[in-house]
Amino acid sequence: QVHLVEVGGGLVQAGGSMSLSCSAAGFSMSQYIMKWYRQAPGQERELVARIRELGIVTDYADSVRGRFTISRDNPKNTLYLHMNNLKPEDTAVYYCAAARSWIGNLSDYYGQGTQVTVSS
């Protein structure tokens, strides 16, 4: 059975750091572009970061560039998001996704999400 499971959300103070992980099961993550999305209440889902299959090419939303780092460990079938200098506006549910396409918002698989709350 295919699924993605995010771990690592919680409450952190502004300026703090937090790391998320996303474990994949039922498929080989190495064959997919992996993405992190987030969605805050009342807002549209936002692409936060993405990483190509080999982990060499990455891309970030302007709002997180320089603060967040996406990485992957294909043998472990795990995706990571390291977040530094967190801001209250980073508060959202964070989702990982496995996609075939670098562009667009369609993905083959999505996780259930993990809540990240940044207090001011």
Runs in which pLDDT lies below 50 for 5 or more consecutive residues are none
The value of Rg in angstroms is: 13 Å
Q: Let me know the number of strands.
A: 11
Basic shape: globular
Instruction: Please state roughly what percent of the residues sit in beta strands, choosing from under 5%, 5-15%, 15-25%, 25-35%, 35-45% or over 45%.
Output: over 45%
Major beta sheet summary:
7 strands, mixed
Structural class: mainly beta
Tell me the distance between the termini: 40 Å
In N-to-C order, the SSE pattern is EEEEEEEEEEE
Helix content: under 10%
- Mean pLDDT reading: 96
Give the number of helices: 0
Q: How are the SSEs ordered, and which strands pair?
A:
Layout: E1 3-7, E2 10-13, E3 18-25, E4 33-39, E5 46-51, E6 58-60, E7 68-73, E8 78-83, E9 92-99, E10 109-110, E11 114-119
Parallel strand pairs: 2-11
Antiparallel strand pairs: 1-3, 3-8, 4-5, 4-9, 5-6, 7-8, 9-10, 9-11
Fold and architecture overview:
With 120 residues, the chain is mostly beta strands. The chain is built from no helices and eleven strands. The strands form two sheets. Strands 2, 4, 5, 6, 9, 10 and 11 form a seven-stranded mixed sheet that branches. Strands 1-3-8-7 form a four-stranded antiparallel sheet, with no helix packed on it. Strand 4 and strand 5 form a beta hairpin. The N and C termini lie far apart (40 Å).
Question: Keyphrases for this structure?
Answer:
single chain, mainly beta, 7-stranded mixed sheet, 11 strands, 0% helix
